[in-house]
Amino acid sequence: MIKLFGLLAPVALLLPQPADDAAHTAPAGLSVPEGEIEDVAIENWLEALGFERIDPAPISRQVRIEGRVVIRIVPRGRQVRRDLMSSFNDTDSATSIEERKIGKCIPMRSIAGVQAEEGNRLLFFMRDQRLVSARLEKACRSEAFYSGFYIEPSADGQLCVDRDVLRSRSGVNCEVDRLRQLVRVRN
Question: What are phi and psi of 8, to 5 degrees?
Fold first, then answer.
């Protein structure tokens, strides 16, 4: 609106000026404070030219504060991975590694590290020295999670199948399709 006045002000100056006494009086039926007489004159000229007066939109003064917590799970150190994996890899003919059901959820705070495996599997290193295999949805590849992942904590503090989304640093988003615990069993 101010730009419109700025563009039309020179036009208003070209129009014939009223006598000095008329410039300081408000139009009939209009009471105007002393400092605003010039503005009223310009507005009257604009109305005479066919322009409408448009009131500016009200200014909203709102403040929005948003907080967001994201948990980052990083790959475990090489020595820790080597120690934990060696206990599973040093299998003799009498033992083997088996996947067992552990339910649909695991506590997020118990995940100590992650390692990308072949295909669409991630290996979670748990704080209680367990290994948990997490299968990602079909379209996801575990290579995207080579440097760990981010997850937003849920209200219950659990990482659940078909609910929570793992986000890699490269921008890939995947849901966990299945959770299994890896255990050594005797044949």
Answer: -95, -10
The pLDDT tens digits of the residues spanning 34-82 come to: 555 566 666 776 777 777 766 777 777 777 777 778 888 888 766 555 6
Model-level pTM? 0.58
Tokens 């981010």 label which residue? 150
Tokens 């050594």 -> residue:
184
Inter-residue contact 142 to 117 (CB < 8 Å): yes
Rounded Cα–Cα distance for residues 10 and 15 (Å): 9
The answer to whether the CB of 108 falls within 8 A of the CB of 158 is yes
**Bridge partners, residue 161, by sequence:** none
Q: Which residues contact 111 (CB under 8 A, 6 or more apart)?
A: 73, 124, 125, 126, 127, 159
